[in-house]
Write a structure and sequence with these properties.
CATH topology of the largest domain in chain A: BirA Bifunctional Protein, domain 2
Strand content of chain A: 15-25%
CATH class of the largest domain in chain A: Alpha Beta
Shape of chain B: elongated
Shape of chain A: globular
Largest interface: A-B, 32 and 23 residues
Distance between the termini of chain A: 15 Å
Structural class of chain B: mainly beta
Distance between the termini of chain B: 48 Å
Oligomer: heterodimer
Helix content of chain B: under 10%
Number of strands of chain B: 16
Number of domains of chain A: 2
Radius of gyration of chain B: 22 Å
CATH superfamily of the largest domain in chain A: Bira Bifunctional Protein, Domain 2
Order of helices and strands of chain A: HEEEEHEEHEHHHEEEEHHEH
Order of helices and strands of chain B: EEEEEEEEEHEEEEEEE
Largest sheet of chain B: 5 strands, antiparallel
Chain lengths: 311, 190
């Protein structure tokens, strides 16, 4: 017998409806415009760690609404937000579903700190967590592991990471990812909003970068964690067309090196940047995980009406 | 044999790891922010029964293991091998001591067992959940005792020892749950 029943109970359905209402009220009160962008589009992302789902004849299901929202911003939309579905191939587990729900918003004229404050105001309301603690990625990582993620010897990172499990072949960034996802995240106090910023330069993605006093490149990027989960990821957005094109090219080279399918850079995004993206900061929040936090539910599949195994 | 990518991993899947057949017990997908995705996997080595923990990069794959469970009848042992027969094909297969180690004290001739075959050869033998065996030695018990109070050790025909109620006597046939090694009941007409 096929299991036709939804993964959710009545409590989860109501909590989701309430969550969407709260979010809408939050942005209405702040005069941020709700928008709607395509989920199916000609191009996907080049990011080596995000695999888009191809739709033959059409392009790709979007892994985030970021490119289209930036095109709206470049066209003069002003501050915008939306709740939408996003899709990532191969991401399935207790905290991942290949189709999931994102809240994403952009603030023109905001600094990264302004956006961090707004993001924490919203999450504090949604999760009833009042304490906010900020950490710089390097300091936090060093405090927990004893190793500097940017300057530590790769072999020292590997030896530290391999204490508890046999690891696959990983490069320096892969080892930092592993330790961040296991040891460091687990060390964050659960009952607070933990804001981690100044990520390593190699993890800038679409964020601007700057330099620490010792010359190491760090990204103007932050993440918010609560109750053991990563909830939000934000950037002070890159607006430089040449730098964006260079990052696309670097991603393509890495994709080729790792025998991943090639992804053409999105020419529309590059053209919009060339036209001019206003200075802005943007953030995405995983709403399914916010629900997990609200309800104390450990499995995302019980908060999605029909998770992928019986969708 | 097929290969399985990490996104096909699920509990029960049989794969090869370091040359040994293993069954996946648990598979957890872990992915930090926009970084490398991992699968943290717990596997049971089907040869040794030991649990292994391994971390894979998502997208890596393992070769499937040619492992299947077959119901076979235990025939006899020649001291070196324990011989089993497929009752449908009448094919006979010898299992070595490593394969029967955990089952040996519950093996009775003509009983049906679950034999896990790896590349066609017996890897592990599991006895039936319940077996009936004769008591060859136990202290004489007190008359009038009922099941559930006290108890005494009884030695069975295979050499196994189980605790039985005091009223059960030498020569009687009893039923045992092999999963717990506990006495269940007397068997009438034994």
């Amino acid at each position: 017998m096929s299991d036709w029943r939804p993964g959710t109970d009545a409590r989860a359905l109501k909590a989701r409806a309430m969550l969407y209402r709260q979010v809408r009220a939050f942005f209405d009160a702040r005069d941020v415009l709700e928008v709607d962008t395509p989920q199916l589009a000609s191009h996907g992302v080049t990011d080596i760690h995000i695999q888009c789902i191809a739709v033959p004849g059409y392009g790709y299901l979007q892994s985030s609404p970021e490119y289209h929202m930036k095109r709206l911003l470049a066209a003069g939309s002003g501050p915008i937000w939306q709740i939408c579905r996003a899709y990532r191939d191969g991401e399935a587990g207790r905290r991942h579903n290949p189709e999931f729900t994102l809240l994403e918003w952009y603030r023109t004229g905001y600094s990264l700190d302004d956006l961090i404050r707004e993001c924490c105001t919203l999450l504090s309301e949604l999760l009833a967590l009042s304490k906010v603690q900020r950490y710089a990625f390097r300091e936090l990582f060093r405090e927990v592991t004893g190793l500097d993620p940017l300057t530590a010897d790769t072999d020292a990172l590997r030896a530290h990471a391999a204490r508890h499990t046999e690891l696959p072949a990983l490069d320096h960034a892969g080892l930092v990812d592993y330790l961040m996802a296991t040891e460091v995240e687990a060390a964050l106090p659960p009952e607070q909003l933990s804001v981690v910023d100044r990520f390593p330069g190699w993890a800038a993605a679409l964020a601007q970068t700057e330099h620490d006093p010792d010359g190491a490149e760090v990204a103007l990027r932050f993440e918010v964690y609560a109750r053991g989960m990563e909830l939000a990821n934000g950037y002070y957005e890159l607006t430089d067309t040449a730098e964006q094109a260079a990052r696309f090219a670097r991603d393509q080279a890495r994709r080729a090196a790792y025998q991943q399918p090639p992804m053409a850079p999105d020419p529309y995004l590059l053209a919009a940047l060339a036209h001019g993206l206003p200075a802005c900061a943007g953030v995405a929040v995983g709403l399914d995980r916010v629900l997990m936090c609200q309800l104390g539910e450990s499995d995302i599949r019980r908060l999605i009406t029909f998770p992928h195994h019986n969708a | 044999m097929a290969t399985y990518s990490t996104n096909e991993f699920k509990s029960g899947l049989k794969v090869m790891l370091d040359g040994d057949p293993c069954a996946i017990v648990e598979n957890e997908f872990v992915k930090p922010g926009k970084g490398q995705a991992f699968n943290r996997v717990r596997l049971r080595n089907l040869k040794t029964g030991k649990i292994w923990e391994r971390t894979f990069k998502s997208g890596e794959s393992l070769e499937g293991a040619d492992v299947m469970d077959v119901e076979m009848q235990y025939l006899y042992t020649d001291g070196e091998f324990w011989h089993f027969m497929n009752p449908e094909s009448f094919e006979q297969l010898p299992a070595d001591e490593a394969a029967v180690r955990d089952a040996i004290q519950w093996l009775k001739e003509e009983d049906m067992c679950t034999v896990t075959l790896f590349n066609g050869a017996p890897l592990v033998v599991a006895p039936p959940n319940f077996v009936e065996m004769e008591i060859i030695e136990t202290d004489p018990g007190l008359k009038g005792d009922t099941a559930g109070t006290g108890g005494k050790p009884a030695k069975l025909s295979t050499g196994a020892t189980v605790r039985v109620p005091l009223f059960v006597q030498t020569g009687e046939v009893i039923k045992i749950d092999t999963r717990t090694g506990e006495y269940v009941s007397r068997v009438k007409g034994g």
